[in-house]
Design goal:
The chain has a single domain, classed as 2-Layer Sandwich (PF0523-like). The protein contains ten helices and five strands, in the order ββααβαααβαβαααα. Strands 1, 2, 3, 4 and 5 form a five-stranded antiparallel β-sheet that branches. A hairpin with a 5-residue loop joins β1 and β2. The protein is globular, with a radius of gyration of 16 Å.
Length: about 190
Amino acid sequence: MESFRFNHNDNVAYALLFSPVNDPGKIKQRIIDAAKADDQDRDAVNFSFIEASLITSRLHLETAIHQAIIVESQGSLRTKTIHSEILFALNPTNNITEAIRRYGVSETSKSLIVVQITDSSASASDVETKMKAVVDGVVVSFRELATVTDWDRVKKYLKLDKEAKEKGDLARTQAFIDSVAISSVAMKSVMQ
């Protein structure tokens, strides 16, 4: 499990990478159902479910989490929860529906990053247990992230087809795309 510590309101974010994921459609339906249910059902899925194939690096994810925490601390969430705000931060456009559709769990998700932002009193092992109870999949190290990233889709969403072709070898191209993805997330709140 990865953990990210931030100075805003004593926040900690925990993240697990699941790859592969079995029956992602069931997870999506559970999230939809929880929105209409009681607090206990909502709490059981109180995570950000992120399409792992669109995350280019640990820093890309960390930047989106940090942006969501900052926006929440300023009282200016554009989505309903801090967890959906992460998806919004990842999307290069300002369309919330598009952000959730692209970066959230879908019926075709093969890999997911599950994130929970909480205060530092939460136990990492308790959070991990809750995540594993929701996602039927294999937990893998974040070192595996590069193997699940769909660089062509990321490039398409960032509109980098021409620029990425000019970078040369694969490693340089991926580093360029990662840099643009991170910058896109970091600058989003400034650009609005």
